[in-house]
Amino acid sequence: MISLEFLLATGIGVVTASGIYLLLRGRTFPVILGLSLLGYAVNVFIFSMGRLKTNAAPILVNTTQSTDPLPQALVLTAIVIGFATTAFVVQLALRSRHESGSDHVDAAIPEQAPHTIQRQVKDAS
């Protein structure tokens, strides 16, 4: 049977890998999504640092099991900050798109693909 820790670690790894893949794309929207995915992966990682316990109180009471409330507070704060920074980055991307006329990260339109260049050379000869 798969343990909860293994499942959580695999999920964090998949979300992190997806975020890195999207960060390496050439357009601004996938880069913004990649940054958001990385933020979500970090939030889940921080939340898991409080240890995974079921049926445990989130605050200290007279029970034997309780979870650490600090990672929960950190994740809640990180979610709010993540929304604000995502909105700011979207605004920057829209402004860059408006000023440069391109949504590429480096604000340059990529050159033609190599296969179209080869076709043009063959047609010219």
**Radius of gyration over C-alpha positions, nearest whole angstrom:** 22 Å
SSE string, helices as H and strands as E: HHHH
Mean pLDDT comes to 80
Distance between the termini: 65 Å
Helix percent band = 55-70%
Largest sheet data = none
Q: What coarse outline follows from CA principal-axis ratios?
A: elongated
Q: Into which percentage range does the β-strand content fall?
A: under 5%
Could you give the count of β-strands? 0
Count of runs of 4 or more consecutive helical residues: 4
Structural class: mainly alpha
Structure explained in plain terms:
- It contains four helices and no strands.
- The chain has 125 residues and is mainly alpha-helical.
- It is 67% helix and 0% strand.
- Helix 2 (28-48) packs antiparallel against helix 3 (69-100).
- It starts with a helix and ends with a helix.
- The chain is elongated.
Question: Notable features of this structure?
Answer:
single chain; 125 residues; mainly alpha; 4 helices; elongated
Give a topology summary.
Elements: H1 4-23, H2 28-48, H3 69-100, H4 114-124
Helix pairs in contact: 1-2, 2-3
Quick description:
The chain has four helices and no strands.
